[in-house]
Each structure stands twice: as C-alpha cells, then as structure tokens.
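Blackboard transcription, Thursday session:
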Amino acid sequence: MFRWGIQSKPPAFMRGFLFSLMILTAWLSAAPDFAKVVRPVLERRCFSCHGPKEQKGKLRLDTLSTDLVQDARAAEMWQEVRTVINLGEMPPKEEGALKEAERRVLLDWLNPTIAQAAKQAQSKGGRVVVRRLNQREYQNTMRDLLGVDLEYTRDFPPDGISADGMRNNGSALQMNAIQLEYYLAAARKALDKMIITEPAPPVFKHRFEKSTDNKFPQGISGGNELGRKKEFIVRIRKDYPEQGRFRIRMGVQVELPEAKGPVPQLHVRVGYRPDTLVDMATLAQRDLTKAGKHELEFTGRIENFPLPVRGQGKYPGLVVMVANEYDRFGQLKSGSAKGGKQKGNQEGEGYPKLRVDWLEFEGPVFEQWPPAEHRRILFESDKRESDEAGYAREVMASFLPRAWRRPVTDAEVDRFAGFYRKLRPNFPTFEDALREVLVMALVSPDFLYLMEPANDKVRPLNAHELAARLSYFLWSSMPDATLRQLADSGELLQPKVLAAQVDRMVGHPKSQQFVEAFVAQWLDVDAMDRVEIDAAVYKTFGNAAQQERLRAAIRQEPVEFFSEILRRDLSARNFVQSEFVMLNDVLANHYQFPDVQGGAFRRVPVPAQSENPQLRRGGLLTQAAFLMGASTGIDSHPIKRAVYVRERLLDDPPAPPPPNVPDLETADPKIALLPIREQLKHHSKDPACADCHRGIDGWGLAMEEYDAVGLWRDKITRRLPSRKTTTLELDALAQMPDGREVEGMAALKAYLLEARGDQFARALVVKLLTYGLGRSLEFSDEPHVDALTKQFKKDNLRMRALVRTIVASEVFRTK
Amino acid sequence: MNQKEFEMNRRTMLKAAGISLALPWMESLMGAQDKLPPKRFCSIYFPYGVSLPNQNSEFGHWNWFPKGEGRDFTFNKSLEPLEPYRNQVTVMGGLSHPKVRRIGGHDSGDTFLTGEEMSLRATGLKNSISLDQYMAQTHRLGASTRFSSLTLSSDGGVGMPTRANTLSFSNNGQPIPSFNRPAVVFERLFGLKGDSIEAQRKGLTRTGSHLDLLLDEAKSLHRKLGKNDQDKLDQYLTSVREIEQDVERSARWLDMPKPKVNAEGLTLDADNETPGKLIYAMLDLIALSFQTDSTRFVTYQLASMHGAISIANKFPSLLGFAKDAHGLAHGAGKGRGAENRGKWDLYQTECLAYLIKRLSEMNEGNGSVLDNTCIFYGSSNSKTHNNTNYPLILAGGKNMGYQHGQYLRFGNDVPLANLFVTIQKGMGVKSNSFADSTGNLDAFVAQHG
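(Written on the board underneath:)
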C-alpha cells in the first residue's frame, strides 16, 4: 500500500515485473473488459467532445493508453475522468447524465484499475526493506541485551504507521535526527548505569509496622486495615536510592467472607511528585485468593517510578502505598453497568478484607558489586589489568555479536578496537572510554536496523538473519541464547528445528509482546481511546477512576482472547464466533456475567441458552473494544463498524469517499430523527454514494443490537443536534452486499463464517504475514498468500499452525 | 474558559529579566550585526475547515468568515475573540493551494505549508519542503538560535502520509517528527543539565568525533545493500550529519546558559485527557520559546485530518462540545450543525487569541514580541472534504510591515503560495517564489521596505 519513503525512480527489479503483471492481469479479470464493455460506453458518451474531432479541455480519450502501470500520465488522466464522473460533472447537463448502468461499467473498470496501478507504483519488488526497530522492539532489545529494565523509550516520538495500520513497517519507520538523538541519549543513559566505576552504594533498609496517618490527595488516609480510601502508606524521608533495583516485602492477612466470593486485590504503588502531580506508578497488582497470612515480595527499578525532587516544597520523600482495589471499586454488583450509585465499604461487612502487618523496603539490591549486568559485559579476563586495549578488544568481540544479532568479522572488531584507541586519551578512565565505544555500537545501523544486506537479487536468509526475523516476529525482541546457538550451528535452518523453536517461542511469556503488538495493529484497539463516551448516558463512565479501570479491562480483552486462541492452538473461527469469552471482574460486571471474581482474566463459557441477551457474546465483534472504537460515544456508528469489518476481518477496505462528496447529513433536524437505515437511504440518493454504500451498510446495520459501550440494547439512544436525546426502536435487519438478509449479530457471525469464511481466513493470513515480514504485501505475494491460506484451511484454521507455516514459508525465509 | 495567567514564576522572571530573558537576541552568537529584535514565524493548523452556513440564514452568525470586506467588516461569532486585536490581524478568504485541489478532501493536511500535490500519481505520496523549514533551514534563518525550529502537534511523531502528525517537512519532503508532550518540550527548551559547561563541551566534542567514526562504519555497510535499503540507510546517514551539525550548534551555545524558566504553573502534565490544559500549555511554550529566543520557527498542528487516527479527534467531546472533531465537521453547512461546529471554531479562535495576547504582553524593543512574530493560522479545508477557500488568519508581525485590520477575499486564481512569498520576504528571505507561487500579496497585506 502507500508508504513514506524515498521513491521516485522506477523499481530496479524488472525480473519480477512480468510475473507481477501476469498476476495483475489475472486480478483485473474481475473488472469489465475494456474493449468489449468499457470502450463502447466511452465512445457513445464521451468521444464526441474528447475524441478525434474535438479535444475539449485538451483531453482525448479514444487514444488514451489503458496501461496505467506503464503510463503515469494516462493514469492521471483516468483519475481525472473518475473524479468528474463521481461528481456528476461529466457529461455536461445538456448531454444528459450517465445512465446508472453506464456509470457502473466505467467505475467498475476505473476503480480497480487505478487502485492496482497505484499499488504497483509503490512496489518494493516484493522484498523486505531494511527496517529500524520500533519503540516496542527497541525497549525489549535494550532490556534483553543489557539486562537493565529501564523505560528507554518513554520520551521517544511515536513511530510512523503504515497505510495498512502496522507499526513495524520498514518503509513507514523513518529515521531522522530527533530519533537518532533519542537513541544516543538512551544508549548513554543505559551504559552509565551499567558500566560502573564507583564503589558499591550504601544499601537502605527500612521496616514499617504501622502506616503513616498523613492525608493524601483524593481523601486517602493511612492505616493497616485497608478499606475504602484507606491505604497502607509509608514515607521514606531521606534514605532511599535513586538508582538501581529495589525490593519490597510485606506481610498481609487476607479475610474471605464467602467461598468463591469476591477476593481482595492488592495494589502496590510507588513514588509521588507533588510538584507535577504525576500520579504514582504501579509496582504490582495481584488477586489474593487464599485466606490467611501471606508474605509477598516485589521488585522494581526505582528510576521507572516518579521520584520527588529532594528539597523542593511539599517534598514527601519516597512514598509507597498499598491498596485493596476491591475496596476502591469492588462493590459494583452485576446489573449496575448503566449506573446507580455505589455505596462505599467503610466497614467492609461481608467484603474481602486485607490487612498489612508490615512492609520492608530494601534498595538498591544487588547480589554482588559491580552487578551481574556489568560483569556480563566487562567480564573477568587476564588482560583486564595488563592490557587495556587488548581487553577492550575482547569486550567488543563478545558484545558486538550479541548486539548486532550476527557473527562479526575481525575487521569489524578491529574497527571498534580502533575507536577505543582513538577515544581513550579523551577519558580519565578505561571504563569511561569503553562506555562510549559501547554506545557507538548501539547507535550504529547494525543495531538499530534489522540488517539483511543483499543486493538486488533475492536470496535466502542466513541462520542469524532468520533467528532475528523470527525473534522480532514472535517476541518483539532480539534472539535469546538458544536461538543464537541454533543459528551459530546452522541447525535453525532445518525445518524441524525451526518448527520446534516456533512452538517454544509461542509458549514463552515473551510472546505476549507479539500478541499485544499484533492485536493492537490488526484490530486497531487504540480506536477506543479516540472516542469519548457520553457519561450522561453511560453512567459507568462518569467517574474518572472507574472509567480508567473499565477502559483498561476493555482494552485488555482482545489481547487475552487472542492469547487464548494462540496458546491453545484453537481455530481462528473463534475470532468470529466462540463459545467462551475472556473476562475479569471489571469486564464481567460490565457485560453482566455473574460470578467472576478478581482482576485476572480467565476463560468463561458463554451459556448456550440464556434468557439474558447480554450474555450472547463470543468472538471479536461483541467485544467492547471494537464496538466502542466504532461508535460515536453515545450511539453505534454503523459505517465505522462496517468499514472495520471489511478492512480488518476481510482485508477488503471500501474505497475512501471521492473528494468533495457530501457527508451523511445529520444536522438537518428532520433527518436527525430518522432511523439510521432511513438516513443512509437518504444519503444514498446520490448515486456517487450509493455505489459504495451498497457494499458497506449491511455490515454495520446488522450490529445495531450493540450500543456505544458494547452492551446489548433493545432501544437506540441518540443525541440530536439540539443536544437533546431521543430514543428509537431497535432495528438490526440488514441487506448484505450479495442481497441476502441478515438480522442481528448472531446471524451476522453465522453469515461471516458461512459466506465469507474463506475471505476471512485469507485476510488473517494477509495480516499476520504483513506483520511477520514487516512490510506491506504486493502482487508478487499473492501466490504465497494463496498457498498459506490453503495450508491454513487444511490445518482447520488453527492459529499456531498458521504461525508455523508462515515461518517455514519461502517468503518469510528470503530477503 | 481556561483563563490561565502567564505562569512564568514572577520572581525568576524579574531576576532573569535583564540577563537571559528580555534581550537574549542581543547576546546571540551571531554577533553585533543582530541588533534588531528577531523575526519569528508560527503556524497553527486545525483540520476539517469551519462552519459555513449562509450568512443570511438563521445560523448565519456562525459563519467563520466576517461580514463585509476590506477594512469595513464585522467579525461573526467564531472570530469575536479577535475583536480586541482587530488591528493586529488580517482575515483571508478564497485562497488555497491549486495543486492540492486535485487531491482527496481529507488528504490536504500535510500540504498546508508545502502546497505539494501529494497524490500517488503526482509524487508517489511524497511531500516537499514546508514554509517554516524553507525559511529556517534552506535560508538559514533558524541558524542563530539554540533550536532552528520547533514542531508541535497533539498526536506526536510523523503519522502516515496524507495524515501526517506534523506540519513540517524537510528539504527532501520527509516529515519532521513533532512533539506532543509539554513536559518533553519544556525539558528540551529549558531543561538544565547538571554537568559543568566544560564537561558538556567535552561531551559534545566527543559526540561529534564519534559520529564521524560511525559515518565511516555506515558507509561501508551502504555498499552491501540494494537500492531500497540504501535509501533507508541514506536517511540514517543524513540524520547522523544533522546531529553533527546540531552538536556544533550546541557547542556554540554552551557558554550561553539556557534561559531560566520556572515550570511551576505551566500545566506540563497535561495530556490527551485534558485537551484544554494541553493546548494552552503548548501555546505557553510557544510564547516562551519566542520570548527567550530559543527558536524563531514553530509549527503546531492542533489535530490531523484523520478522525480514525488522531487522538485529538475526541478533544471537542472531552471539552463538552456536541461531537468529536470529525462529527462536528459533518453538517457544518447549515442549521444547528453550523452552530455546533461554530462553537468549536470559537474555541479554537480563543486559543489563537490567547497566543496573540501572550505575545503582545511580552515587551521587546519598543513594542512587543507579537510585533516581531508572524502568526499564520488556518485550515486546508473550507468545509470538510473541500480543499478550496481556506479559512486563514495572519496575525502580528507589525515590524514586518503588515497592514492589518482587513478582511481580504481572493479569487481562486491566486495561489496560497503567493502569501507565503510575502511572509518569507517579511521574515528576510531573499527569494521571490515558493512552490507554485505566481507572485506575492505584498500589495494587500504588507509593505516591505
């Protein structure tokens, strides 16, 4: 699709060109035949003014090339033709407007022809473009490489997104001075912390058995018994570290009033900046499901928490707060999702209770000095004392292959040893100089980019490149020691070994990075954050803290859902319809599912037959993240929902509206009162709109049973231009593009699986392959997609099988 | 409305006034020839155009454009906050970028300051240099400040082609990433490093020479790559060279302490959930960056034209307006929809008025910072989807010769770039063209001596 980047010159890969053209022709066979069908219409309606006799507006159509791929000027002319047809500007009034059938023929040829020519113009020859690490990948890579879990990318400018919605697309990921400046700063910050010349710092230890009784913002006060607005709070006035890892241990007592009833949720927060009002950061959150006494331990990196500035006004010291989230929010009962005041739990009768007996803080914690991460880079060696330069060379010889994810040549190590010798005189100590040389390795292109050097000839990846591609696909990070070893020995290139690695990696906790990244990009989960919910209608969104918590659960649902399907190797059909949902207490409460306690997500079966229509859930389309993201904040947005299904689930995005077409008119008070179906009809009176909306509207109308926050409804609430609200009858009857009628979400899902099952499978292959490769797909990829889809169907649409097939495919294994 | 006072700590301001705040340009490293106050340029962009009901209809008073013409005009409701600054502003109608009329209605945001026809066919979705960068970089007007330019937006980064999250594009049409977090901008502009100047100088010198070594390294890699990959690596090499230049610039600035500005009262913690605070914090930072002469070129994109991508799309609903930004744009042509959209236009104008007020209260030379600042405010749509008749305001810059207090209407034979030529001449660029300009608008808005 469309990308940033330096284009301009024609692609140099002419070899693949004829091939692409064949596919292009095959693809275009769906469009009407130009000579037989399209040209006669043009001849009848256009040539008299734009033909051999006359060339009004200097446009002559009878001789205009129809090869839009080869002839850019012709392509531009045809684009103009499409615009004037869309706008109804041509033919001029006195000649009589185009008949509907004529318009259809012209547009059915123009639309795909122009779109495909445009795509061809953007071609990168079907090859992966060298891409830099995106924020997630950089963060994970730095952590895994250096062993220091700092927030490296907190201030980085957001990464560019590709037109197909991906954040790991090599063409969309730009480099510029600001970006590089941040890389440089991040590398220096990390190595300053790692390469240590100072003696071991003092270790601070504190034990608290009583909470402070200071008052804190939002009416919170301290106490050992946790309750509503009552938290266990300690302040360390002076003696705490500002660097390094810290450990918090605590003794808590859990009281559970009823078996299988609600459970307390421990929430530990650290740091507080009264000057900037930056909220505390969460260290840990955990459901405590067993009654009795517990000892718990948590660790974190102190730099990642908002530390107060010593000596400033209102300086609070380092603050640690322990809360029972259940007390903050938990008294929500099912059925209260649409509002109703929650009563506080001052006394906590019948509620799960937490008491903190004691809390210990220790920091910085390290097993030895200098810490392990320092020793991993500056290891013991005979040369260390005797031969600084020789030792520096040893250090780089060990560091570079890990940092650059490949073996390095002697010449490369020499170059860095040379850097070291050049830099050494500028620095007081050996470590200072070496630190800077290490920084250089971390801002060099070999680290920042997934480098697969190749000339214009397609070649298979070598074992290390494959390890890196695989690792960034499934972990969003660098290869681990196992992958590295298998790459060193070359075994990774064996299909069996590779398949086994895919299984290991998918089973590893790091694959959560893949799930989060892919789900966010495939499903555009961020869409829900771009919609503000009308709190006057949806009361649960009225309270900021409550809304934040609910939004977090809604945002998490698709991630947990995908994770469940991948880890258990379930069929991708579950994305359309599943007999289970993934819920935690907050989300269960929102959806009115009973008996889900605690903040952890778990699989909950959907009752086969239920009186309560709220419980008719399953698949992606009934998830609030999607329904909310494609809403107006008060009502559904059927068009957005429809576009979403076509774009994300079917990989068939409708064309954007032609320039200067009128929008759906909702400001007219009369139209504002009409049911959505009537509004759309009104809109589609304009033939330019009707064309596309035929293929769009049905998908959205069938989902009308769900409101702006993803709940089932039997009435539709809408806000009028006058700002008053009005209620309309529910109507979820929809006519699909193929003319079939579908009513309601359940029927829509069944229709998707039955009539569009193959298209859905193919779309998922496209999305996952796009993500895995880090580039947009092109014509030349069509056979790969076909083959992968075929295998995917053979494997019963099992997700893990698809990942394995993609990794084993030729397209994944070549540069 | 957020009536936030200028929140630079008063004491700091007084203490610093004579030293680093009031006359930093006098001490600029450019030396003695630079005795006049500096000239600045700030462009603020908003998406989806404005409310345009028929002037004579029931809701006609929500039409963004004034009634009347020339010097004889009356502001309608949306521009009322500018009434106190009537003689500091010129409202312009009818202008647009001719080439941009050919591209999609939602695609024009990237081209506001470039005028490029950013379509696949015409340029492969490549943009060209923006007005701010043309002045700051190509003509080196940004060379004499600590930062040559500052790029701000609500979404941050670069976004995607035709839906960029930035107004600024470099010489080769690459988007320049924008900053969207006030705290980060503040740190960049005014944050103090703990190290001594000597230590910083060493650090900079090192960075410079180290990057040199890196360039050699990268160049050898370059030879091993295919064409597309080489293009990507070229971006990297360009970035390294730019940092080297920045390092040189920073080294020159070392002896000059960063202006002391107290963050207290600036709502630096503002984020996407508190758009009012966020926008005003950004405006404060623009004013401060000009006052302290930290930079002379700022662009600020209030939102991009991508409802589906821009977080700023929900700002209006968060602030209590009837719908989100794109929703408001629908039906802005008439009736109640025009009013709803008009109220948002009004809100945006209040933001502009706030910046004008701030700058006008900052004394400089015989006047104010505003007199030396050209503010170019507007959108690349008239109504949504329509790339003609941009709603535009030129404000400030009295010392650049602007004849304000007018409402000017142009025919669509006048390219917007003609105005850019006038702006760049006012700023001191010795060039009589920009993009597809066919002349200038000096006769209407300015008299350049």
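Lecturer's comment: Chain A has 29 helices and 18 strands.
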